[in-house]
Design a protein that fits this description.
Helix content is 62%, strand content 14%. It is of the alpha+beta class.
């Protein structure tokens, strides 16, 4: 009976993998021609038609840096500054070191109306983000596990050593491991907290009044324009509390922006 059950489980796994592979193949077969069609339309300077073709791929739940990059290019040609910045940013999330994306994003950002001077960064802030960018949250979590195991092994060697020289050596190594463990654990928590709080969005409205409260009758604090990147701090039904690079906050209708 056990053999039969195990065999059945094996058959189910194999069947699932076959279905998954078939789904992937069909998805590529369907979206590949759409992508190439979009490229042909873009070369023919039919930018809106190219956007329509590529958006069908996104509707099929397929995402790729090149796809978003091309959408950004097409929207830039159409002078849709907000969507072009949005798709360049989406592309950059998937390929953060791509120079072409960064270059085109810079061109699109130069076409924005808003020129917001960011708050000055402290030395500690710069140091923190320099260190935190070395690894992702998962990377810091894995390094915490590695340093934990390293500390236990080094401490055990220290504990069971008889030589004074070896004890001093492994005591120093254990101390160093604890320091690395503490740093990696702290960075893991910090980067996780940053990831949770990080809710960037792009303004899609041509011009929008940022208000002091989430209602149209409240006072206007300042005005933003299409393409400006903001951070969503809080949501209240159809409104979003946003923060811009210079630290100013205010409420805008949620429909006037798009989250990355």
């Amino acid at each position: 009976m056990k053999v039969t059950i195990l065999n059945r489980i094996g058959y189910v796994k194999k069947a699932f993998l076959v279905v998954l592979m078939l789904f992937t193949v069909l998805s590529f077969a369907q979206n590949g021609p759409l992508f190439e069609q979009g490229k042909s339309l873009y070369k023919a300077e039919k930018y809106q038609e190219a956007v329509t073709s590529w958006m069908k791929i996104i509707a099929n739940k397929q995402h790729a840096s090149e796809l978003y990059f091309n959408l950004g290019n097409a929207h830039y040609k159409l002078n849709n500054i907000g969507p072009s910045i949005y798709y360049y940013e989406k592309s950059l999330l998937l390929a953060p070191n791509d120079g072409d994306i960064k270059n085109n994003l810079a061109f699109a950002e130069n076409a924005k109306v808003d020129a917001i001077e960011p708050l000055p960064k402290t030395i500690f802030y710069k140091w923190y983000y320099t260190v935190s960018d070395v690894l992702t949250f998962d990377g810091w979590a894995y390094s915490t596990v590695v340093f934990s195991i390293s500390f236990m092994l080094v401490f055990l060697i220290y504990y069971f050593s008889y030589s004074e020289r070896r004890k001093r050596l492994f005591f120093a190594a254990a101390t160093f491991s604890v320091l690395l463990l503490g740093m990696s654990l702290s960075m893991a928590y910090s980067t996780y907290d940053d990831a949770i709080k990080n809710q960037p969005a792009i303004i899609f409205a041509e011009s929008i009044a940022v208000r002091e409260a989430p209602n149209l009758g409240s006072e206007i604090s300042f005005t933003l324009h299409e393409g400006t990147k903001v951070q969503i701090v809080e949501k209240d039904t159809d409104w979003a509390l946003i923060e811009i690079a210079n630290g100013k906050e205010g409420w805008i209708p949620y429909s006037d922006l798009k989250e990355l």
